Structures are given as C-alpha cells and as structure tokens.
Inverse folding.
C-alpha cells in the first residue's frame, strides 16, 4: 500500500469512486469521521488526495454536524487524558514521554495521549506507556515523520508505521518498560 495514503478510508473512497458505487450519506459521515481520526484532524499523513476524499464524502452527503456528534468524547475521559498529558515530560530534546498509572486503560487512550503530545513545541515524537490489561503494558508511539517510531517499536517486539506504531510487553512493570524504551531510543 502506498505510504502517501492517509488511511483505509481514503482507500475505500477511491475504490468506491473507481467502481462507481454510491455511498449513502450516513456511511459517508462515518467515513469522514474515520478520516478525521486517522489524520489527527487533517494534521498528519495528509496529501491533496486526502482532502479530495473528504470533499467527495461531503459531496455525497456526509453530515459534518453528525460527524462532530460521533466524535464527541466523555468529559471525564478527556480530563483524565489531559492530566496525563500535563504530567508527561521530555526524555530528549524532541521526544515526549507519558507514563500512565497502574490502572488498565484501553489502547486508544494511549494513542490519543501520544497524538496530543505531538502538538507541543519541539516535540517530534511521543510515547505513552500504560497497562492495557493486567499483565500487558502497551506503548503507543507517534511521530511527525523525522523519527521512525516503527523501528523503535520493532526493537521492543511491536511494529506499525513510521509515524504511528505500538508495542505490547508482557510480565514487566511500567518502570521496566520505561527503561527499556529509553535504552532503545538512546
């Protein structure tokens, strides 16, 4: 698959256009929401083709208001996430790290925190470490492109994309995983 494509949604839009298939307004709305999530609100992994896909979805009836409703977040989750972002730190001049507490979190929470950290000055890559089940610690990694987070996650048994990657490590503590990550980054 071409690394220039922003997401599966962009592929599906192009395929539907190629097949001359209609996309219903509801499906177009859901696809537009997916495109927004996959590109971090059209800030990462975008090209002119990404915007053409979004424009096409709007043309066939995507509802921007309904999309906003679909993407709403629970206030408690948002505030909790912001607390973690607030307590993150820089481990190099351009890499941010958030280490979560001992509670279990959904993987998407780690990913959202890593995405949030990319918005700050000097942050080129970000990592979030937290429990994703009782015995497994997840690492979510994001990059603006200058740092290959896929390679870093690969060294820890994970994988992904240059800009988005993850790893899961079993039977270690958060502190142990944090030290492993720092060693790989060095």
């Amino acid at each position: 698959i071409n690394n220039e494509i922003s997401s599966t949604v962009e592929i599906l839009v192009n395929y539907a256009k190629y097949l001359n298939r209609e996309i219903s307004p509801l499906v177009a709305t859901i696809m537009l929401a997916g495109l927004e999530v996959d590109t971090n609100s059209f800030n990462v992994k975008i090209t002119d083709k990404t915007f053409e896909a979004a424009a096409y979805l709007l043309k066939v009836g995507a509802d921007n208001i309904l999309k906003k409703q679909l993407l709403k977040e629970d206030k408690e989750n948002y505030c909790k996430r912001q607390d973690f972002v607030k307590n993150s730190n820089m481990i190099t001049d351009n890499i941010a790290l958030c280490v979560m507490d001992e509670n279990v979190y959904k993987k998407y929470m780690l990913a959202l925190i890593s995405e949030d950290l990319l918005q700050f000055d000097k942050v080129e890559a970000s990592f979030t470490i937290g429990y994703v089940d009782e015995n497994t610690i997840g690492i979510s990694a994001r990059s603006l492109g200058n740092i290959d987070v896929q390679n870093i996650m690969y060294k820890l048994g994970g994988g992904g994309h240059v800009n988005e990657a993850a790893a899961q490590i079993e039977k270690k503590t958060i502190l142990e995983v944090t030290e492993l990550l720092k060693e790989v980054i060095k």
